[in-house]
């Protein structure tokens, strides 16, 4: 491993989402999104999954930290300068659909929104930072939920196609790397952020996914027409899955869960067709998806160039009845406690080897370049009076994951092109709507109640990551 490592053009960087750090939620013509009406706090995810919340802003009952985020909208030059100081090769960002089309179905785009992203992209390019743009990152325009019922409605395909064409025509000659839908496979779990639907049935979720597959393929088609050099990727969340024991029933349960969650969406977007296990699942469940031969042909013809995924944790599957009350708290995917793994402050199991397994699994199955678009440790950072933050725990977490990435590249032959740790600058957590769950190399002086001056401060991990990038991962 001393003479081989990451490719010379490896894209080191960081990742964010517009709705979690831009702020300015109602400025310059921007419309409301599903993120803007999603309450903050520890009950956020249970509330969103239950469907029992209003599609309105209710400040008497809830808080909405993402409304101001960390004010990247007004401070982007300062933040991008810090990214450049760390040596970023790429910056994964998203565009807010409602900044471009406030209602989602508008006839004309909002020029002020387009101009803002012009400025951000140009600022990144000034420092030779390659933008990686996610077209849809958990913020479908709210009007599309109220008027059309979210992604189960096929009309959203055309609205998304128009939105994608608008931004690809505007930025497609400047930006090479794009992704369509963020963590698209969370729709399998009934995520409101993904499908923009409340109280959806399983059939609704699969219909919404089908419509997004078509929309994703159309965006890929448009991108290649505008600039053949564009690299379009899909993006899913990956959870390495273990069978708790060698009981064949447990192993089969793990297999069924794994292929539906970790493979299904990637199979459609990378391979371009519905896999046989999915068709059998639909038939056995009585799920009927409305699709046309033309739509299936679009999906087949316009597959992605690379596969991007987020990795935070693994999960362990058991069918033993005595484990029903031993579910690990915090893991998105359920599962029982893995006795070999530690957990974070938020109950997420920490499993660096699981990342290597993920890389080997995905590259072995699909054979396309891989892009780790999210990975990181959410933790409470406590600065001293001078805002010194010694986040050795974060450095340790990232070191261990990077070491496994390197093994996957050198020992397993995986074609890995990029690594963008999540929340490279502190931002509002998607899962809890809190600032206290911090991921960044840069501390932002802002608490869960919105107190603080939002000043930026380098953590210990800032200089450590700067050295990792400078040496292209030789010094981890």
Automatic annotation (TrEMBL):
Per the UniProt record, which EC number(s) apply here? 3.2.1.-
Gene3D superfamilies cross-referenced by the UniProt entry = Glycosidases
Named from the GO MF annotations, one term is: hydrolase activity, acting on glycosyl bonds
Instruction: Report the Pfam families cross-referenced here.
Output: Glyco_hydro_1 (PF00232)
Q: Does the keyword Ubl conjugation apply?
A: no
The active site consists of 374 (nucleophile)
Read off the SUPFAM superfamilies from this record.
(Trans)glycosidases (SSF51445)
Alphabetically ordered keywords of this record: Glycosidase, Hydrolase
Top-level taxon of origin: Bacteria
Q: What class of enzyme is it?
A: hydrolase
Task: Give the family, as the similarity comment puts it.
Answer: Belongs to the glycosyl hydrolase 1 family.
Its recorded name reads Glycoside hydrolase family 1 protein
The scientific name of the source species is Enterococcus eurekensis
């Amino acid at each position: 491993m001393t003479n081989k490592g990451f490719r010379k053009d490896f894209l080191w960087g960081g990742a964010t989402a517009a709705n979690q750090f831009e702020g300015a939620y109602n400025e310059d013509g921007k419309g409301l999104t599903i993120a803007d009406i999603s309450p903050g706090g520890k009950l956020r995810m249970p509330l969103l999954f239950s469907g029992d919340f209003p599609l309105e802003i209710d400040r008497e009952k809830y808080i909405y930290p993402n409304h101001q985020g960390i004010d990247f909208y007004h401070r982007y030059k300062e933040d991008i300068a810090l990214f450049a100081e760390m040596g970023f090769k790429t910056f994964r960002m998203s565009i807010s659909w409602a900044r471009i089309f406030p209602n989602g179905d508008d006839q004309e785009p909002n020029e002020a929104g387009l101009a803002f992203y012009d400025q951000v992209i140009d600022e990144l390019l000034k420092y030779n930072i390659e933008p990686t743009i996610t077209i849809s990152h958990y913020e479908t325009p709210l009007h599309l939920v109220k008027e059309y019922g979210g992604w189960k409605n096929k009309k959203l395909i055309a609205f998304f196609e128009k939105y994608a064409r608008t931004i690809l025509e505007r930025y497609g000659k400047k930006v090479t790397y794009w992704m369509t839908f963020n963590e698209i496979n969370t729709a399998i779990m009934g995520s409101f952020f993904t499908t923009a639907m409340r109280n959806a049935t399983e059939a609704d979720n699969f219909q919404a996914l089908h419509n997004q597959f078509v929309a994703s393929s159309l965006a890929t088609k448009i991108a290649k027409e505008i600039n053949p050099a564009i690299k379009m990727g899909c993006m899913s969340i990956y959870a390495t899955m273990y069978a708790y024991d060698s009981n064949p029933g447990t192993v089969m349960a793990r297999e069924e869960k794994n292929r539906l969650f970790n493979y299904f969406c990637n199979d459609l977007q990378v391979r371009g067709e519905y896999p046989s296990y999915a068709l059998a699942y639909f038939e056995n469940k009585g799920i009927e998806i409305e699709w046309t031969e033309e739509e299936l042909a679009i999906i087949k013809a316009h597959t992605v160039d690379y596969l991007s995924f987020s990795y935070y944790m693994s999960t362990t599957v058991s069918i033993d009845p005595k484990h029903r009350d031993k579910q690990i708290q915090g893991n998105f995917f359920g599962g029982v406690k893995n006795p070999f793994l530690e957990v974070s402050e938020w109950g997420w199991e920490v499993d660096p080897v699981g990342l290597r397994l993920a890389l080997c699994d995905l590259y072995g199955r699909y054979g396309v370049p891989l892009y780790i678009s999210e990975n990181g440790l959410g933790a409470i950072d406590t600065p001293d009076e001078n805002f010194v933050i010694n986040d050795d725990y974060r450095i340790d977490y990232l070191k261990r994951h990077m070491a496994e990435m390197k093994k996957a590249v050198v020992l397993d032959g995986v074609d890995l092109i990029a690594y963008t740790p999540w929340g490279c600058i502190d931002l509002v957590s998607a899962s809890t709507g809190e600032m206290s769950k911090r991921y960044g190399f840069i501390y932002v002086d802002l608490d869960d109640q919105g107190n603080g001056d939002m000043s930026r401060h380098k953590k210990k991990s800032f200089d450590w990551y700067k050295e990792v990038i400078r040496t292209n991962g030789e010094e981890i």
